[in-house]
Specification:
Elements (H helix, E strand, L loop, with lengths): L9 E6 L21 E3 L3 H9 L6 E7 L7 E3 L5 H11 L8 E4 L4 H11 L5 H8 L7 E4 L2 H4 L2 E8 L1
Parallel strand pairs: 4-5
Antiparallel strand pairs: 1-3, 2-6, 3-7, 5-6
Helix pairs in contact: 3-4
Length: 158
């Protein structure tokens, strides 16, 4: 289970490189909250992300300063609204938020989301399967205005 970061102003990014200058990524496969730069408040989760990368395993730390003038969507937990939003993003449907924060569809949850999107399982079946999974967290910076809210602080290699 991931530990919650007690300093809510610090975010973590797991990768195979040090990312001193984050970028809003708009290429690749559709992700939970759309395109952007993904971080987490859970250090252990960033370590897991880093360990999936080769040849290095790097965790980069950022200071996060929230801005009032940005359009932010925050999911405190997995809800029907969260499921619909993730399903839409995974289908490639764009949204208008600068920042989106909430639980992530990890590998196992993602399989359930895929089954839901494909119509293989009902919404009720999704929730029955997803109910007891470990807490996860992600925050994605979707616009250039949003990316200015984070400042590189440090990194370490696992």
């Amino acid at each position: 289970m991931s530990e919650v970061n007690n300093n809510t102003n610090i975010l973590f990014h797991g990768s195979n490189v040090v990312v001193k200058t984050p970028e809003v990524r708009t290429l690749g496969h559709n992700k939970d909250f759309g395109y952007g730069f993904y971080c987490t408040r859970f250090e252990n989760q960033a370590k897991k992300w880093a360990l999936t990368k080769k040849p290095q395993h790097i965790v980069t730390l950022y200071e996060y300063n929230e801005e009032d003038n940005l359009k932010v969507l925050n999911f405190e937990q997995m809800t029907d609204e969260w499921l619909d939003f993730v399903a839409d993003c995974r289908r490639g449907i764009k949204h208008e938020y600068d920042i989106v924060e909430g639980p992530m569809a990890d590998d196992q949850i993602w399989d359930y989301v895929e089954d839901f999107v494909a119509g293989n399982i009902s919404r009720e079946a999704f929730w029955a399967l997803a109910r007891f999974k470990n807490p996860t967290h992600q925050i994605v910076f979707c616009t250039e205005r949003a990316i200015k809210c984070i400042t590189y602080k440090d990194f370490y290699e696992i």
